# Entry
Amino acid sequence: MKIASFNVNGVNGRLSVLLRWLAEAQPDAVCLQELKAPSERFPIGEIEKAGYGAIWQGQKSWNGVAILARGSEPIETRRGLPGDGDDSQSRYIEGAVDGILIGCLYLPNGNPAPGPKFDYKLDWFRRLTTYAEELLELEVPVVLAGDYNVMPTDLDVYNPERWRDDALFRPEVRALFAAMVDQGWTDALRSLHPGEALYTFWDYFRNAWGRNAGLRLDHFLLSPSLAPRLAAAEVDRAVRGWEKASDHAPLWIELAQEESADRPGGKLTAPSRSRERPTRRK
# Structure
């Protein structure tokens, strides 16, 4: 099973890039971030013509997340991160696809730091860490994928000294990412490329793409029952060089077929937390 994540930086403005990449890469499930469109403007018609069902949560101008599934529709299990009922930002959606619980997330940027935006980022990250621990207690295969807006180590940034005080690289943020991993999650890309400088983001400014001045902001975290199935993890780096490209490149993992659906942590047969689903708007 091939699961991908792609911060599209505007799903309508870069729809041609998304559709081209879907046709070439043919992932089985996709997490999208930064839709930059309200829910009613999500291009579900074009997505379905490409062979994918979808669940999504949009937001005008900014944010927005979606999960696509090839040949089927994800079974929605949650929208919105728990822990703050007043949080209106569209940054988390969750669904079951082919027996795997997939959480798609877009963690806040947090700049300028320090400041209110950074405080919100830390609060959101702490809520994610708490919820991630609850997901592990379900003992089902879980993937938490998306744009985490954090470079976990010096290896994940082209020039660490330049970024020390940035909200993407401050020690508080890296500590929270490390705390999540310490719960038992596996950083998929890093686990298969332990010493390699891999990036998923290149800014539009200062010729960052041409200089390979990149950052690894997008990550897959795998639950303990799923990690042994990890067969591959890569970045589709070339997509960043396409016309009208996002400043992020897609990344993906490939999971080997599970040996048995009867073992603990095996096949997820139904959503664990049923929620009433909103009417899908086309």
